[in-house]
Structure formats: structure tokens, C-alpha cells
Amino acid sequence: MGTVLKGMNRVPWHELTHAYGSAQRVPGLLSRVAWGDVRTSTDALGDLGLWLGELAVFDATVAAVPFLWDLAVAPAVTCRPGVIELLQAILEHGAAQHEVQYAAHRAVLSGERTVTLLTGDEDPAVRAAASELAAAIDGHVCDSCRPA
To answer: CB neighbours of 94 closer than 8 A, spacing ≥ 6?
Structure first.
């Protein structure tokens, strides 16, 4: 596996949930994004978006964000702009539990240096998605993330 998705097998995915239930299939989707052809990667990323961040964030979202950052910078990943867009969706969505929303947002915000590097990527679609995420990070304000 190399360094992409390193440590993914240490996450107790079966104990985590996403929008439709158990997150035990999330590692397989992340792997398909990492090593699949264009169609496979795009389909897997679409499922991840539905499960982890398009409507709300979940405990599985928090666990997945570091791996999404890995995928965003891996040149072999065919859908890097979509991965970056999913990170932005996670930052923009809430959760029923304040702690989960806070953790998911912090996980995305922790990649601020990475997104800055991606704004200089050679792929124009990656640069564009990264610029939008960088602006979202710079302007992020939500009740969960406000200092106490």
C-alpha cells in the first residue's frame, strides 16, 4: 500500500457509522479511490460523498478525513479534485452531535498546509478545487468551531 492509506486497517471501521449505517465498507471505497481506474474511483468517491459528508458528518467522517488528505495529494489518484471537493463539503456540513461536527471540521482544517501546496499543483482542476477549499478554510466560522 505504501504511504497512501497507511494505518487504515487500524481504524475500527465496524464500530463507526456513516449516513446509512455501519462504516465497515469505507476502507474498500477509499482503496478504490486510491487505486481504481477513472470510473471506479469516481463511483467510489460518489458513494463516500453520500455516506460521509454531503448531508451531514459522522464519526466515520472524522476517521476518513486523514485518508482523504492522503488521496488529495497522491498523483496516481484519478479524481483528486473530487476528493478536495468532498473535504470542502465535510467542512461545510454539520452533525447531530456537536462533538462529531467539531472533530470533522478540525480534521479538515488540520490540512491547511496541504491545501496551500495543492493550490500550486500542476493539474488545473486540482488547483481550482484547492483554491476553493483554501478560501473555505480561511473563512470557516461555525458554532462548533468557535473558541469557547
So the answer is: 56, 57, 101, 142, 144
What pLDDT score was predicted for residue 1? 41
Helix 38-52 × helix 26-35 angle, to 10°:
150
Environment class of 139 (CB within 10 Å of its CB; exposed 0-12, middle 13-18, buried 19+): exposed
Using one digit for the tens of pLDDT, what is the confidence trace for 93-121?
A: 876 678 888 899 999 999 999 999 999 99
- DSSP conformation letters of 58-93: -HHHHHHHHHHHHHHH-TT-TTHHHHHHHHHHHHH-
3-state secondary structure (DSSP) of residue 53 = coil
Distance CA 130, CA 138 (A): 12
Is 75 contained in some domain? yes
Joined together, the cell numbers standing for residue 31 give: 482503496
Name the domain count of the chain: 1
Q: Which domain holds residue 82?
A: 8-138
The gap between the terminal CA atoms of the chain, to the nearest Å, is 40
Answer yes or no: is 67 within a domain. Answer: yes
| Residue in 61, 84, 60 with CA at minimum distance from that of residue 72 | 84
